[in-house]
Amino acid sequence: MSRSLVLAAALLLVAATATPLGAPIQFTVRGVDDAMDLHGDPTGADLVIFAGGNQWFVMPELLAAFKKAHPEFAKIFYETLPPGLLAEQMRNGALQVGDLVLRLKPDVYLSGKQRMIAMQRARLVGPSVTYATNVLGMMVREGNPHGIRSLADLGRADVRVSMPNPKTEGIARQIEIAYTKAGGAALDRQIMVTKVAAGTTLFTQIHHRQTPMWILSGKADAGPVWISEAQYQERIHSGIVAVALPTSENVTATYLGSVVDTAPHRAAAKAFLAFLISPQGQAIYRSYGFGPPVFSKE
Questions:
Q1: What percent of the chain has pLDDT over 70?
Q2: CATH number of 29-133+254-287, picked from 3.40.1160.10, 3.40.190.10, 3.40.980.10, 3.40.50.920
């Protein structure tokens, strides 16, 4: 018998005698082997959600409530990455994390308004529902040792800024609008060009993970984020505190959700979007610092 046939026979024997699938073995080493924005088991999932990363702390409670309301959709896999990265994953059909490659089709896509419009124009998603809003704030270390009170302070040479990458993170565009409101084009150029060249503005890849980590590790001093993220860090007593921004310097983001055009589980996707705008779904978002949906008069 050839070596390949022997190997095939051995594999069949192993498969035939293997014990039924149970709880997965634990192989997570924080900072070494972890994937904090990939959640659940994609194999045989009833629903796959691609959600903008700034909602990562909302999703566990939201999905627990959704599954209680819809026990027929018990197995859910979701990702909480920047919407730009999720959009690229949808276009390319795969995501690679280290040596792990995930190939799966999402059912639901959650993002900011402008990104959603672009995805609709590309015919990747269908009509959308509006379910939340948010405004900007800043994260600093507890005690605010650098005395950072405004966006203008991020232009100081002694302040290291953790800044979302404009290439992949939609929040970056909103932050630059706020920079211009706070200090004109000069402030935006100072933070996004001069300080980048000096190494005191650092671009993130996953700002909702890297910004608090960089501040706590001493790599950065402050970072503009959605205020709900900074407030969540305060809520869990991580050592990060929130700095609110005045309305005159702020912007409001609108969050939308759509069923993906190629969604394998359309009934589950529609049920989830309906839950987002239900009183229960809305109450969960409000409890984490998100604002209510705002509809334009256009």
A1: 87
A2: 3.40.190.10
